[in-house]
Amino acid sequence: MPVTGAPSKEQVFRDLYDAHWARVRRHVECQLENEADVDEVVNDVFAIAWQKFRPARPMGWPWLLRTADNLLRDRARHAAVEARSFESLVSVTAARARPMSPEDQVAFSEDLLVVEEAMRKLSHYERDVIALIQWREMSAVEAAKVLKSTPGAVRTALSRARSRLRRAMEKGGDDHDGS
Predict the structure, then answer these.
(1) pTM of the entire predicted model
(2) Backbone dihedral region of 174: left (phi > 0), alpha (psi from -120 to 50 degrees) or beta?
(3) Residues 52, 104: one domain?
(4) Residue 126 sits in the same domain as residue 66
(5) Residue 81 falls within a domain, yes or no?
(6) Residue 22: domain span
(7) Considering only CA atoms, which of 131, 34, 139, 35 is closest in space to residue 81?
(8) pLDDT at 96
(9) What are the angstrom distances between the C-alpha of 142 and each of 25, 111, 122, 161?
(10) Is the pLDDT of residue 133 over 80?
(11) 25-29, 102-106, 131-135, 155-159: least confident range
(12) For the residues 91-109, what does the mean pLDDT come to?
């Protein structure tokens, strides 16, 4: 039973947030250029802090800094995987393609740009699902294990991602054909 007059968990956390939010934000801003990405990482830091928060032992600046750095490293790793996925798509497609005329090479390059742009519009989770199932040829069960998800969630994400890709690529193709 809480002691009368003792601050609530919410109040102690609010004090922690008020004391460190600006420092965490400045730290993340030094690592990321995009304002939305900065907001996302800072919000994630404090969401994780809230999940792990114990009023009797509130975490301090070093803990928040480590959490921000871990999130930034995860983001960088994910970006590297994404870049490798795009490179993989290009190399697999190029390896399967017949020799192309210069005009076909230009059209192929433009099509790849449309695919890349469409992939960027997917969520990180949807891109991971596409990469694992389409490019790595995993089953939904295998991909679910990698993503720490369920096969049903993976199948749903795959279906949505395919639909979103199809729409984005059709739009990109329409824009390209109209020029």
Answers:
(1) 0.47
(2) alpha
(3) no
(4) no
(5) no
(6) 9-75
(7) 131
(8) 54
(9) 37, 30, 21, 18
(10) yes
(11) 102-106
(12) 65
What 3-state class would DSSP assign to 86?
helix
Helix (H, G, I), strand (E, B) or coil at 154: helix
Domain holding 32: CATH number? Answer: 1.10.1740
Q: What are the DSSP calls for 87-142, one per residue?
A: HHHHHHHHHHSPP--HHHHHHHHHHHHHHHHHHHTS-HHHHHHHIIIIIS---HHH
CA dist., res. 166 & res. 72, Å (int): 31
Mean pLDDT on 163-167: 85
Q: Which long-range contacts (CB under 8 A, 24 or more apart) does 82-90 make?
A: 82/127, 82/131, 85/119, 85/127, 85/131, 85/135, 86/116, 86/119, 88/135, 89/115, 89/135
Is the Cβ–Cβ distance between 129 and 143 less than 8 Å?
A: yes
Q: Which is higher by pLDDT, 73 or 114?
A: 73
- Does any domain span residue 82? no
Q: Would you say residue 51 lies in a domain?
A: yes
Based on the structure, what is the number of domains in the chain? 2
Smallest CA-to-CA distance from 39 within 49, 24, 54 is with: 24
pLDDT of 67 higher than 90: yes
pLDDT bin (cut points 50, 70, 90) of residue 26 is very high
CB 115 within 8 Å of CB 89: yes
114 lies in the same domain as 171? yes
